[in-house]
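ASSEMBLY PREDICTION REQUEST
Request ID: AP-0331
Submitted by: J.K., bench scientist
Number of chains: two
Total residues: 483
Priority: normal
Notes: Please return the full assembly, not individual chains.
Input sequences:
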Amino acid sequence: MQKRQFLKTLLSATLIASGLGLAHADTLSNVEKSGVIRIAVPQDFPPFGSLGSDLKLQGYDIDMANLIAHELKAKVELIPVTSTNRIPYLTTGKVDLVISSLGKNAEREKVIDFSAPYVPFVKSVFGPEEAKISKPADLAGKVVGVTRGSTEDLALTKLAPADTVIKRFEDNNATISSYLTGQVQLVTLGNIVANSVNAMTKLRRLSPKMTVEDTPCYVGLAKGETAMLAKVNDIISKAKKDGRLNQFSLRWLQVPLPAGL
Amino acid sequence: MSYHFDFAAVFDYDSALLAGTAHTLLLTAVGAVAGLGIGILGAGCRAWKIRPFDRFFAVYVELIRNTPFLIQLFFVYFGLPSLGVRLDEWQAAILAVIINLGAYTTEIIRAGIEATPRGQIEAAQSLAMTRAQIFRHVVLPPALAKVWPAICSQVVIVMLGTSVCSQIAAEELTFAANFIQSRNFRAFETYLIVTAIYFALAVIVRQMLIVSGRYAFGRRTR
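STATUS: Completed
Returned structure:
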């Protein structure tokens, strides 16, 4: 009996507390008060976020989370999420920010807000050094490999001329092999993937030719957090200017941060 | 159950399904004819111990029958370019199918040849027929007639096996299924329809082979 009463009290207390939390949804002042910021990060998506050999989280998004916490003078609490639950974590108030290679689209913009972009996530057509490809029309009559069903497959299918031969392979590895063995003239890959292939093999260089899709990643915030949004955008633009984002990019993506981001 | 079946979403891609079906059939037809040719050649060499070709075919049969078709296909498509032999996905698929079926039919036909009664060959020799004549007129036709059901089965197995050619971007029926499924996310409907197509193809191909066997060997079999 007593135990049940206690549970009831606890339950109502929780409900009231969470109700209060929602009523005073100003994340920035909450963070400043408590000195702790909760950030959702990926744990299975290198180079953005993965477990290192010391079992600690590492990656571009982890560095980004630490940077924002540092600028807010708060202690960071990293909360590993998956790509499917990262937005619910934000909308139910379990985290203050999502920094998890999050791309922007119309459906997502209905439920959360986005900061300025902090890292590019470009997919491009790659080919040999001497291939002269700079615009979609140049792909006419060319054989281009791509991974079937990927976002770059959809984007490439849309922009390539009708007489481009698109060869769709089962997975990223087959797509890469098809280029390395010369079965296709060109190949469409994430720039980050292509860089790691270049680092691993000298069989055939992948030199970037033309951007197929440019969907940068953004910090995600709950709707209406204007103070926090302004602060995060300040931090991002400051980090862009003083070269810290460029360092992250060099460290995790092996390329400098593009100037236009 | 909250899932709404939408088969129309698959039939939006009917041209992809048709093209895929046609390619699968073509691949099977070319593979079957050439594979049967290799099988007859190999079985003749092995059964009549024509050196050194019998040794060569023995190694070939063991090698192909004891390795997966997918690996043979990858070797032809991704492996051979390193030796300077670059075949496109269709050349690679057709070559792999021929090589694969050739090995199996070699063994199947050899069994038929070895079942030829000794007396028939001796009778042919007493008529002063050459070795080639004996093989062509006395040994081969009844041997093929005997093992024809096994050959039909092997061709159907190979036809179903061509589904792995989708892995090297050859746009056959399984490729069409995976492609459609990656565009409309209707996995259940897509694979159900493609399963039905494969089943129908298998039944049709088998019946056609049985009928053509009856036409070719009709008078010899009871």
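REVIEWER COMMENTS: The CA atoms of residues 87 and 206 of chain B lie 30 Å apart.
SIGN-OFF: pending second reviewer
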